[in-house]
Fold this protein.
Amino acid sequence: LGDDVTALPLTEELSFLQETYGEAYTEGSIPAEAYGLDEDIPTIVVPNLLVVSDAMSEDLAYEITKAIFENLDTLASVHPEAENISLDTATETQPVEVHPGAQRYFDEQG
């Protein structure tokens, strides 16, 4: 982050966020190597979702989902957090529903 910025742990706010907004907020950490820090920083994490209109065609949603999962190495070369994108957790989107086109891709992958 540089000499002029300090990363602060944020976990003290976790219980308030969970009580107010639900269990989507959990404890995690920012890996030291992500920003050239000396140590991991405890923080609050929430899953990232790609949200689209339910009017999007099933075929387009399928192709977008396929493009993401078939190019994870490229995405990770842009930002290391993309290494955490996984088919194992891709459908954990509650309360947001998985688009039928994306679900078709996930079903094909087993």
In short: Strands lie at 26-30, 41-45. The CA atoms of residues 54 and 105 lie 16 Å apart.
